[in-house]
Amino acid sequence: MKKHNTQIIIIGGGLAGLEAAKWLVQYHYKVVVMEQEKIAGGHVVNWHSLYPGGIRGDELINNIFLTKDSMVQILTNQRVTKVEKRDNFFWVHTSQGERLFAEAVLLTTGFKLFNAALKEELGYGIFPNVVTSAEVEQILASRMKPPWQLPPRKVAIIHCVGSRDMKAGNMYCSKVCCMAGVKTAIHFNQQYPMCKVYNFYMDLRMHGNSYEALYLKAQTEYGVQFIRGRVSELSADQYGRLVLKSEDTLLGKPLKLTVDVVVLMVGMEQRKGLVVSDRGKELAAFDGQHFYEPLNAYDDAHKTCLPGLFLGGACKGPMSATEVIVDARAAVQVIDQYLQNN
Ligand code: SF4
What we know:
This protein has helices spanning 15-24, 57-66, 133-140, 177-191, 211-220, 321-341, and strands at 7-11, 30-34, 72-75, 80-86, 89-94, 99-102, 104-107, 112-113, 130-132, 154-161, 196-201, 225-228, 233-236, 242-248, 253-259, 261-266, 268-269, 275-278, 281-282, 309-311. By secondary structure, the protein is an alpha/beta fold. The longest helix is centred in the C-terminal third of the chain and has 21 residues, at 321-341.
């Protein structure tokens, strides 16, 4: 029975990594969390609020930190470049040239956001008032200054930016952005009560408990207008306002709309740059081209082809914060079972 001196390394100090660390120390393992940014907390720590309950992102992360145990060591500014399996243990290498020993490794590297500048037709990086969903979260949380000078009167929120898009190379749905788009529309109205918000969508995927209710509330209480259509072009008029061209596919009519602010709901992508090797041989399954695949999606959803290397959270594919928490906790059970038997 292994416990106190068994070291587990968690790569990625976002929501999944911290949640898993919190529970692994309850089992008396020695846990090291390696985070490449200067603070832990991942994307979530910057989020204004999380649906469905509306908790602030930093509050959720702080709740995990409050229960932190001295057996968790959080190393920030540590970019892991390679995970190497030798016999029955691992070496985890960093960009600073160090290596750490572990008997099990959990990858909770999460996701990166689609680079909106790649969709040139949507004007990101060209027009200051075109912002991403991640930037809006920071603006609404007062972590970032808004680029607009006056309270916006009209806002367009564009769904599926870099997701479900063959040209962008991402054929999958990022799963959380429909609901985040509805939530953002409501928050714009709360912050700027005179503002009219338009959401441009392909399909609305309201799959969670109470999501449909929030979608209806956005329309009935806040007057948010949902338009089914892809925005094909964005330009500026002589006053600097943003002009969108689209089609309302339900009415079958072309549409032109002038707004003050455009929010792009950017999708999730796999992070690149981590090499995983087994006795010197690099494993193609971890080349970063796709989200990491577990052994299977059912009863081995946290194991990989390399025994002792586990997956947790959104490095496996788009997930909401609530799903990440559940997934990280499940990963803990699987890791404990593995270490008890090895
Ligand atoms: S969740 Fe909605 S906005 Fe996001 S990719 Fe899927 S359909 Fe598009």
